Amino acid sequence: MKQILIKNAKEIITMNENRERLKNADLLIEAGKIKEMGRNISLEENEELKIINGRDYFVFPGLINLHHHFYQTLTRSLPEAQEMELFGWLKYLYPIWSNLTADAVYYSTLLAAGELLKTGCTTTSDHFYVFPRNQADNLLDYEFEAAAEIGIRFHGSRGSMSLSQKDGGLPPDDVVQTDEEILADSKRLIVKYHDSNPFAMQRVVLAPCSPFSVTEELMLKSTELARQNGVQLHTHLAETKDEEKFVLDKYGMRPLAYMEKLGWLGEDVWYAHAVHLNSSELEKMAATGTGVSHCPVSNMKLSSGVALVPEMLNKGVPVGLAVDGSASNDSSNMILELKSAFLMHRLIHGIKSLSAEDVLGLATNGGRDVLNQPEIGSLELGKAADMFMINSKRLGWAGGLYDPVSALINQGDTQIVDYTIVNGEIVVEKGELTNVDEKEIVEKANNISAKMCKDILSR
């Protein structure tokens, strides 16, 4: 049976209920789970055992990314998109995204997942919602295939857009589908990929894109389909004031009230952003167990606003962390997202609003709770062997080894980790991906991106 033994780790940051830290401790991985933790774990050497000398290493639970758009890694840093807020930004990018192909989906998944793994992320959700009419409707299959190949734990969100510009929505006609097409493919994906068992590596989420891009009927039918099949629901909500105005004008109510009308509250629902919610709405979120994926870098870059995360946590709203799409964040760097969240809330909500450990809690325990996958998010006996390791003898960490959590968030000249382990498999070793060819991913992604953006950039 395959085993990994981390010997004499400098410090293991467990993020368990008591947030214990174990110094000079061993950690044994067996069959994808944490088998034993403590001192002086001894095993006979054999071909199935890999021993890692952890003397200089800090060991952290794997980070959990709750919201992304992998395909956007192919449209990063486009000059004209840099000075736009959300609605204008979307209208500019929709025509480029209409050029998505199966290869684009596959390689953008490898690219985004690779960046995530190399920055300590072991579990990710992705919200894929662009299905060009000139392509087959099975594009999400290529995400599941690539995620399995690279070795990341994956919650694939079958997104959708059905309300085009001619019907009063935001997206153009060539990237929307009918409700019937969307629901049929959603059923197919649940049957093919959803694993409801504990320690699942792949699950399916139903995720109509947003109140301004889908019909009310699709929201209702997606809810029914998801709950019939025991899968979660996800969408963008309360991201900008423009969205709030759109929903008020079209439906005569605020975004959360509209979601409540459609049955979109509950422990099986989480929203990306949730920036523009008031205190009474947060109380409703807490009472129903409805979750939030907090996306600080995207919210800052698009000037969308600052979510009330400290208040959410005080009220008991389940909150996790997310990088959001790489065209609004321009990276898939989870450790940098930790730092951004920490600094954002210190600036806006005060010096005692969130500690470094609180922010790490968002990206571990918070993600676990939102995704309803209790076996991830902390390092404890019997839980999933999802973790990352950083060598303490780094230039950027010198002079600041007193608190590894603070060092992780505040220090460093790079966020690339030394090891990432997912489901008991080493997927990053010495800072490099082990299951895929990074040079090939870079070359393919650049070529595909150039083709997708050719018409826009040649204007």
Automatic annotation (TrEMBL):
The keyword Zinc applies. Its EC number is 3.5.4.32. InterPro entries: Amidohydro-rel, Metal-dep_hydrolase_composite, Metal_Hydrolase, MTA/SAH_deaminase. Keywords: Hydrolase, Metal-binding, Zinc. Pfam families: Amidohydro_1 (PF01979). GO terms for molecular function: 8-oxoguanine deaminase activity; deaminase activity; metal ion binding. Residues 58-427 form the Amidohydrolase-related domain. It is an enzyme of class 3 (hydrolase). This is 8-oxoguanine deaminase.
